[in-house]
């Protein structure tokens, strides 16, 4: 009997969409290779992903609710980072920690062969270890980030300023809940991973940094690929896609800064004037904090902006089908904050990146993108501010001018290489997980729990 057919795996991501989405894509890839998956999260998160599972997926992916304690500041709809007021983040981490006994009970009931966990919950591998279940850390960020955080010397080929590294380390040290900093949580999670660490990256992008991270952690870092959800045809009739259909090939930029970063009024004005100056067609996805009662995008933009750009631009409030836009032949650039998920999507669909990083790991991700030639970073002024003319210049360079052809060619080549290597990457992941479980004596003739 194929040993994989007897493997049951519990996946436990952190409660953020940027973590849940790659965990779900990993679940799908493993389920198609004879793994039975228990996908564990809060009810509010599970309700948002039910629609992303096909009937076939549901045969081998089971959604398992983990219940957080009822805290006065944290009603059930806040048991996710989506829409969570920033001041409640420590409360959410504390509540997740308090769910650890419930998670241990889930493991006792399901009796899995393996758990795959995330970077903020060191109690998960501890619970697994107490039941002799191997546990593997899956990082949904890049290998360069891990290398930079673990190594004090500068990373070759990545011109990251010390100040940027210190900012990231300070953020990890300052973010805490239950008197445990994020830095301490991450260190424990790295230490407790059984022999290997899975990472959302691929060798063409971060090969030497994958090897470097393996040396620094003394565990084999195994890339799992970009883990980008497939596009569907459900948005074909969306007005925005029909609008794109009328544009020339590679003529339009998508402008989006992720779901959890909001432009300041000054940044919004510079971005608007830059798009106007660039003369390039664009789709701009504008998001606002829930506390800002913005009735329409028009009131947030410079006066007369929408009428001046006319049919050349589309401004959309809150959400647009990003993957479908990036996959459209009319899209020739992505003005992005360089969150790792956005980088993965842009590279998968072969779209050059105009990098405007904002905070956290984004400045480093932008350096990675630029260092391999698949994007260009917009330089800020000496005070760290964005300049409309500089943004416009880089957009035109990437989308319109001859100098941008090398970037476009490079990103297309990388996209094609990613596609060819996808099966090989997941085959290596499967082999590593099987060997790990065989070595730990954890694979048996268990069948999925009804």
Largest sheet: 7 strands, parallel
Total of DSSP H or I helical runs spanning 4+ residues: 18
Report how far apart the termini are.
21 Å
Helix-and-strand structural type: alpha/beta
Mean pLDDT over the residues: 89
Kindly summarize this structure in a few lines.
The chain has helices at about 15-30, 45-50, 55-60, 90-100, 100-110, 125-130, 145-150, 160-175, 180-190, 205-215, 240-245, 265-280, 305-310, 320-325, 340-350, 360-370, 390-400, 405-440; strands at about 10, 35-40, 60-65, 115, 135-140, 175, 180, 195-200, 220-225, 250-255, 280-285, 315, 330-335, 355, 375.
Give a written overview of the molecule.
The protein is an alpha/beta fold and 450 residues long. The protein has 2 domains: 222 residues, Rossmann fold (3-Layer(aba) Sandwich), CATH 3.40.50; 173 residues, 3-Layer(aba) Sandwich (Rossmann fold). The chain contains 18 helices and 15 strands. Strands 3-2-1-4-5-8-9 form a 7-stranded parallel sheet, sandwiched between helices. Strand 11, helix 13 and strand 12 form a beta-alpha-beta unit. The longest helix is centred in the C-terminal third of the chain and has 35 residues. The protein is globular and about 65 Å long. The two termini are 21 Å apart. About 2% of the residues have low confidence.
């Amino acid at each position: 009997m194929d040993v994989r057919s007897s493997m049951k795996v519990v996946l436990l991501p952190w409660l953020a969409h940027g973590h849940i989405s790659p965990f779900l894509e990993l679940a799908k890839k493993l389920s198609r290779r004879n793994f039975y998956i228990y996908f564990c999260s809060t009810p509010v998160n599970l309700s948002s992903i039910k629609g992303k599972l096909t009937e076939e997926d549901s045969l081998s992916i089971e959604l398992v609710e983990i219940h957080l304690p009822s805290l006065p500041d944290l009603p059930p709809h806040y048991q996710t980072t989506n829409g969570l007021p920033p001041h409640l983040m420590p409360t959410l981490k504390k509540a997740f920690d308090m769910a650890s006994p419930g998670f241990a009970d889930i493991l006792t009931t399901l009796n899995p062969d393996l758990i795959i966990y995330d970077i903020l919950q060191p109690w998960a591998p501890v619970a697994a270890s107490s039941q002799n279940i191997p546990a593997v850390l899956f990082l949904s960020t890049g290998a360069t980030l891990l290398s930079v955080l673990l190594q004090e010397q500068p990373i070759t080929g990545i011109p990251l300023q010390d100040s940027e590294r210190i900012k990231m380390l300070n953020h990890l040290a300052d973010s805490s809940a239950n008197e445990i900093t994020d830095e301490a949580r991450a260190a424990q999670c790295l230490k407790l991973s059984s022999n290997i660490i899975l990472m959302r990256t691929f060798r063409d992008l971060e090969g030497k940094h994958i090897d470097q991270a393996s040396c620094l952690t003394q565990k084999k870092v195994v890339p799992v690929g970009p883990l980008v959800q497939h596009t569907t045809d459900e948005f074909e009739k969306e007005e925005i896609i029909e609008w794109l259909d009328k544009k020339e090939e590679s003529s339009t930029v998508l402008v989006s800064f992720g779901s959890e970063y909001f432009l300041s009024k000054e940044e919004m004005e510079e971005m608007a004037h830059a798009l106007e100056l660039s003369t390039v067609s664009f789709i701009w996805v504008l998001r606002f904090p829930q506390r800002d009662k913005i009735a329409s995008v028009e009131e947030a933009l410079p006066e007369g902006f929408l009428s001046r750009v006319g049919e050349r631009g589309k401004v959309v409030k809150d959400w647009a089908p990003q993957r479908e836009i990036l996959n459209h032949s009319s899209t020739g650039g992505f003005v992005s904050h360089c969150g790792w998920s956005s980088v993965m999507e842009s590279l998968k669909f072969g779209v050059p990146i105009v990098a405007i990083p904002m905070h956290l790991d984004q400045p480093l991700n932008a350096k990675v993108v630029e260092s391999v030639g698949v994007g260009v970073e917009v330089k800020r002024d000496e005070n760290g501010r964005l300049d409309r003319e500089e943004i416009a210049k880089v957009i035109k360079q990437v989308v319109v001018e001859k100098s941008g052809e090398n970037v476009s060619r490079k990103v297309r080549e990388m996209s094609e290489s990613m596609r060819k290597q996808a099966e090989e990457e997941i085959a290596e992941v499967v082999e590593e997980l099987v060997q790990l479980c065989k070595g730990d004596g954890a694979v048996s003739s268990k069948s999925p729990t009804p």
